[in-house]
Amino acid sequence: MAKLIYSAISSLDGYVADAEGNFDWSVPDEEVHTFVNDLERPIGTYVYGRRMYEVMRYWETAPTGISEQSAEQEYAEIWQAADKIIYSRSLEIVSTAKTWIEREFDPKAIQQLKAAAARDISVGGPTLAAQALRLGLSVTCSSPPSLWQAARRPFRTRSVWSFNCWTSAGSATAWCTCITESRGDWRKSPHWSEI
Fold first, then answer.
1. Which residues does residue 111 pair with via DSSP β-bridges, in sequence order?
2. Of 1, 44, 98, 129, which has the maximum CB count within 10 A?
3. How far, in Å, CA of 98 to CA of 81, rounded?
4. What is the pTM of this model?
5. Where does residue 109 fall: left (phi above 0), alpha (psi -120 to 50 degrees), or beta otherwise?
6. What is the mean pLDDT of residues 73-95?
7. Measured between alpha carbons, how far is 130 from 65 in angstroms, rounded to an integer?
């Protein structure tokens, strides 16, 4: 079965955006982008909300195929090859290939997609990741260790976590892989932890 993965580039203190919602400070250098590409290569489907899709659709027209390929060009190829599902009640049309709109986030549909998929599924954006967790979906997270403190606070939920953290050599970026399993009604479970 495919994995449902949430990943984000954030500050070491866990923010995915600044107070005004800007994230230009988080543009990865070549080393970090190469690392991200390795994480993204197994993705067959990206699941986004409207705002994340509007940011990510840049990769549809990003240059590719230049003789000496950069990490950005490689990422554009990875992104263009994947399917994209956009959850939005307001978006009328999409401007990228292999993309369709769904009006409601349905955990049963995501579970069916996971069961049938040959490749992993990426949940883009902390708001959608938080919704997936609240609805009881099991999500694998690749992100800096204190992501649950992020500006968008995706993990306001009662969940069980396990962590494996590392840093990229020569970079101020730290990454943490965490696996979370929703416990449903946390008040009835002896195994919940406060996040």
1. none
2. 129
3. 8
4. 0.73
5. alpha
6. 96
7. 36
Percent of the chain with pLDDT over 90: 41
Domain borders along the chain are 43-134
**CA pair distance 133, 135, nearest whole angstrom:** 5
Q: How far apart are CA 121 and CA 117, in angstroms?
A: 8
CA 95 to chain CA centroid, Å, is 20
Burial of 135 (0-12, 13-18, 19+ CB in 10 A): middle
- Cα separation, 165 vs 67, in Å, equals 35
Task: Give 85's contacts (C-beta < 8 A, 6+ positions apart).
Answer: 45, 46, 47, 48, 99, 100, 101, 102
Maximum separation of any 2 CA atoms in the chain, in Å: 58
Distance between CA 83 and CA 61 in Å, rounded?
Answer: 15
Closest CA relative to residue 195, chosen from 128, 121, 133:
133
DSSP 135: T
**Would you place residue 12 in the very low, low, confident or very high pLDDT band (cuts 50, 70, 90)?**
low
